[in-house]
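Treating backbone geometry as a discrete language has practical consequences that deserve illustration. The sequence in question and its structure tokens are set out directly beneath this paragraph.
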Amino acid sequence: MVSLSYHLEREQAELYSLILNSVGIGNRIITVDDGFRIQVPSAMEDVALEAISRYHAENPVVRQESTEHSLSRLPIKPISGFCIALLLLVVHLAVTTSSAPQDYTDVFGADSIRILQGEIYRCVTALLLHADAVHLVGNMVGIVLFGGAVSSVAGSGVGWMAILFCGILGNYLNAFAYDTRHLSIGASTSIFGAVGILSAFQAVRAKRTGKGWKQAGLALGGGLGLLAFLGTSARSDLGAHLLGFLVGGGIGAAYGRRNYGEKVPALQCVSGMVAAALVVGAWIWGAIG
């Protein structure tokens, strides 16, 4: 079963159920913390969405509750984002108060030559290092906002695993792009990966639910606008930002085409544990390598 609608009042849920029953689509109403939801068989998702959209088109006086989250209305759940931001702060304080802060950048930064020579761990560890307080604060805010939004869409475990993957692959591809000595640090590659996930997810879902290419284009344009506005300053690593965004776009598009709304607890737990293990393992690798 897949969920179609979220945050519904009982009357709205019963109306949608009646609409689906009238066209022969089996469904059920479930009660959740944020109200009521409608679930239908996975194979009937597109048909059910079309039936509800057609009803609203034919009855414009009835208040329409969107059957999909849009990025502008996506409820951001920043708790996990605050936790990750706190982790960035703790690492930064540990590095800056150490006897040799520069050694951390030398050993754990995303040095392109070292990465291409096999020190892949740097693609992970560099995400937790920051040049100064301004760099750190900007990325902490980005993690809370965009990381929290991805967590709302995909769940905390899968969401942060996807964001981490964007940062890792973005840094790795960036090393190939330079193929020369280039050093990069900071969580912004992952943050722009989160922006890519959100914009591509919204674009795919807009197209699938009949909102057309215009809405899909607006979603992608919004993500690219954020990249251009926030990711192209003089001190920014535009290559890493762009590659993180593109990786995130691929993940967001793939996730948008699956049965959004089914957040399996076991999968969330395993994904979160894998993400944590990757981060810890990378730091251990760098420390003893």
Residues 61-75 have pLDDT under 50 and may be disordered. The two ends are 47 Å apart (CA to CA).
